[in-house]
Amino acid sequence: MKALRSVNARATSPLAVVWLLGVWLLLWGSISPLAIVSGLLIGFGLLWATPQPAVEIGLRFRPLAAISLLLFVTVDLVVSSCRVAWHILTPTLPESAIYNVPLRVRGGLMITMVAVAVTAVPGSTVIDARPEDGMLEIHVFDASSSEAEQNIRRDVQLLERRITAAFGSRAERRRVLEAEE
Amino acid sequence: MRGAEIADDIGDVVILGGAVWSLIAGVGLLRLPDVLSRMHAATKPQVLGLLMMLLGVALRLRTADDITTLILVGLFQTWTVPVAAHMIARAARRSSDRPGAG
């Protein structure tokens, strides 16, 4: 049902072609007229042959906030790798738990970004995202402390704030900031 | 050519570090008790290991063609690994009622 509707919903988006062209040029590693023309042809061809569901983009890009987000997530990735490595290499295993964490962002792309970033946060992976009621179902690896649920909620809120600051539309930012007041 | 030698040496160290992280991820996949815990091993140390490996290879190759390809590999890995882990975790969760059961 869903697939059928999306096929009709989507005209070839110029942004998607630009993105595919960018990937193509990165693959070739050089910018030549031939690479650009072939990239455009392949981009249009692919999008024509495999129509994608329409995604409401609604993105802004704020470079400074994006760089700080990137650094933040990288540090998270290193810290969480160390923690997981510790549990893998020592004999004791922590107690895990699953929590439902409410989201404040609403856009599909925003939820995806938050979910991807949550996976880098120390000790958590996303099990399920439920956009209809704005919930993320998160598996917390080490939930032995009594504040585990509060901690993961706080981490998700922090990520939401950083991600909307870097990429969020005005409406998404307002929603996140208002929810905090 | 001192700069090139230094880049080579740093590249070696970083590649070795990446290999160690990947090994830890592999051990984790075997050792952790259930699917959901294993997803932690499959996402974090594995991605870090791969990114370090790519960085090390980039430091050794140092040509624009290769580096752009390595960037693509890194980009798609960091973007798809959490999604893949999420799909597996969700399937595991839905096929059992016990939280955390494998």
TrEMBL record, chain A:
Keyword Transmembrane helix belongs to the record:
yes
Q: Tell me where the signal peptide lies.
A: none
Primary localization: membrane
Q: What keyword terms does UniProt attach to this protein?
A: Cell membrane, Membrane, Transmembrane, Transmembrane helix
Classify the protein's membrane topology as the record does: Multi-pass membrane protein
Q: Name one GO cellular component term.
A: plasma membrane
Any transmembrane segments, and where?
Answer: 33-51, 63-89, 109-127
Q: What is this protein called?
A: Na+/H+ antiporter subunit E
Organism of origin = Actinospica acidithermotolerans
TrEMBL record, chain B:
Q: Which Pfam families match?
A: PhaG_MnhG_YufB (PF03334)
Q: Which domain of life is it from?
A: Bacteria
A Gene Ontology molecular function term of the record: sodium:proton antiporter activity
Q: Where are the transmembrane segments?
A: 13-33, 45-61, 67-89
Which key words tag this protein in UniProt?
A: Membrane, Transmembrane, Transmembrane helix
NCBIfam families cross-referenced by the UniProt entry: CPA3_mnhG_phaG, PRK12674.1-2
Family, as annotated: Belongs to the CPA3 antiporters (TC 2.A.63) subunit G family.
Write the protein's name: Monovalent cation/H(+) antiporter subunit G
